[in-house]
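Bumping with the actual sequence this time:
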Amino acid sequence: MPTGTTDQGDKHVQQPATAADGREQAPPQRRTIRSVLVANRGEIARRVFRTCRELGIATVAVHSDPDGDAPHVREADTAVRLPGAAPADTYLRADLLIAAARAAGADAVHPGYGFLSENAEFAQAVLDAGLTWIGPPPAAIAAMGSKTEAKRLMAAAGVPVLSAPERPGEADLPLLVKAAAGGGGRGMRIVRTLAELPGALAAARTEAAKAFGSDEVFCEPYLPAGRHVEVQLMADGYGTVLALGDRDCSLQRRHQKVIEEAPAPGIADTTRRDLHAAAVAAARAIGYTGAGTAEFLLAPDGRFFFLEMNTRLQVEHPVTECVTGLDLVALQLAVAEGGHLPEQTPPTTGCAIEARLYAEDPDQDWQPQTGPLHLIELPGEPVEFTTRATPTGLRLDSGVGAGSTVTVHYDAMLAKVIAWAPTRPAAARLLADALTRARLHGPRTNRDLLTRALRHPAFLDARLHTGFLDEHAAALTAPADKDAPLAALAAALADAATRRTELPSGWRNLPSQPQVKRYRTADGAESEVRYRITRDGLQAEGHPDTVLVEAAEDRVVLAVGALRRSYRVARYGPVVHLDSAAGATALTALDRFPDPVLHTEPGALLAPMPGTVVRLGAAVGDRVTAGQPLLWLEAMKMEHRITAPTDGTLTDLLVGPGHQVEPGTLLAVVAETA
C-alpha cells in the first residue's frame, strides 16, 4: 500500500431503513434504468453522462438558449431545449424538466447539484410522473431543507450542533448569519458587533428570499479558525449506510469552496471515527438513501459540530472517487435501481486535491469575468471524469471547452482540476504545476491564487481554516506581472514574424527607425515596446542584455544573459496570450495613435461587469460616505457591492432593481463634498 494510505474500512451492519418520520420503510422495488435525463447543465451533466455511457444507459440533456452548443448538449444522446436564458425560466422550471423527460423517453431523472437538486417538491413531482428519482426520498430532502429544522433533528439524534442564543449578547460574538433554506454562501454575513446585527439580518433575508424563496435566517457562533470537514455518505434502501471517507473544504472565498482534498489531513484517528459515526447517525435519523454529505465545523480543540447535510452529490466528489476508486454516480444509479450497497467501505489510498478554476478576478473583489474561452489545455493529457488514478495523476472535470462562451447567467466555475498522488505534498506539487502550465486563453481566472495557495507553507503544513484566504491575502494576491515587459517584447516579435518583416533573416544594412508596439496588461498598465533588428541582432530599449534566439508567429525564444525564456504565443484579435515557465501573460495590442479618451465625470460609478441590479442602498440627494454601498449587482450567482468612491452627495442614480447592465454602464454619480 503506497505511503499516505489510510485504512478506514469498517463493516456496517444493516439495520431496517426508517423514513424521516421514524416509520420503517418498505424494501425498495427493483427496476432497470434505461435512459437518464440530467436536470442540470455543464460539468455535472457531463460527469453523469460519462458513467451512463459506461453502463449502457441512454442520456438526455436539457439546455437553455445560451447553452445550445454547450459540451453537455453535444455529448448527450438526446437534447431538449428549455426556451430562455435565466435559470428561473429554464433549469429551475420543474414542469419543463419533467415534460422534457417524457418527450425524450427518459425513465429516470438525475438532479446533479445546484438548481433543483435539493428541492423536495421537484423530487416528488418526478416520482408522481412515474419516473425514477436518482436521489434521496423527498421526505429526507425536506427534513434537511431548513438548516434550523436540520439542527433540531440532529440534536435529537445525538449529533453535536452549533447554536447561538435567540437573543445574542456581546459574549456570543462574532456571529454568522445564515439562510435557513440554502447554501453556497448566499445570505451569509459575519457580524462582529451587536450594532451590525440588524443590518446583517435584513440584508441576509433579502438575499435569501431572492435565492431560495425563503427569507428565514438564523445565527450561529462564528469560529474564524474552524475547519470545514465533511463526510461522504452513501446509503441504500436496505439499511446500509456507508461513510466513504472525509474531505477538508476549508479554503473558501465568500463562504464558497475553492480547494478541497481527501482525506482531511491532520485529524486524529479517534476524531475521524467520531466524525464518520456522527455522519452515519445523521443519515439514519432521516431515513436517507443515495449519495449525500454531512458537513461539520471542526474547532481547533478537536470538537466538531454539525453544519448541514447536502442531500445530493457534491461538487467536490471527485477527490473521494480518486482515493477510493469508487464511481459515486454508478452507486447512485445502483441505489435508484433498488440495488444493495457493499457492507464494507474500501480503504482510501493516497491523497487527492481539487482546485476550482473560476472565471473571476481575485484582485478585484472576486469580480466574475465573461467572454469567449478560446483555449483550456492542461499538461500531461489529464483524463476527464475518471474515478481512478491515471498515469499522470491528473483529472479534469469541465463543463466548457475551447469555443465556449462564459456568460453572466450561470456560475463562474470553468473546471475542476484534480491531482492524485501517494502523498499529500506530492499531490499539492502536481496540482500547482499543472495549473501553472495550463494554457487558459479567455477571461481572467483565479489560477494564480490557486497555485500560490497550494504552494503556501501554511497549506503544506495543513494549517487550514475557513479564513485561510483572508489571513494570507497579501501573499496570495497577484502582484504586478513582473514578466509583462519581456512578454510584451515577445508579443511584438511574434507579430513581426506574422508579417514576415523585421526578423533576423531580413535585417537591413541601413539605419532604420525602431519598430513600436503598445500593449495593455490585464491589470490596465500600458507599456511601449521599441526595438530594431540589426546585423548585430536584436536591439530593444529597456532590454540591453536580451538576445533573440527564435521568432515565429506562435513561438518566441529570448535569452536574457544566461537565462533562456520560451514563449508560446496565441493571438485572438487584439488580445495576445503568452505562456511560459514563468507563468501566463495576456496583453491587448493598442493602436499606436489612439482616439482621444472619452471624458468620464468625476464621481461617476460605472458597472464593472455585466449583471442585474438587485437592490439599492441610497437615494438621490442622500449624503454618502466613501465605501458606503450604493447598490448591489448580481452576476454569476454572486452579489457585488458598488460603493461610493468618496464622501459626498448622490446626485444621480440611473438604475433600479431589475435593471440589466453591461460593463461600463453609468450607474450613479457622487458629487464630492467641497
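The C-alpha cells above came from a reply further down the thread. DSSP finds 16 helices and 39 strands in the chain.
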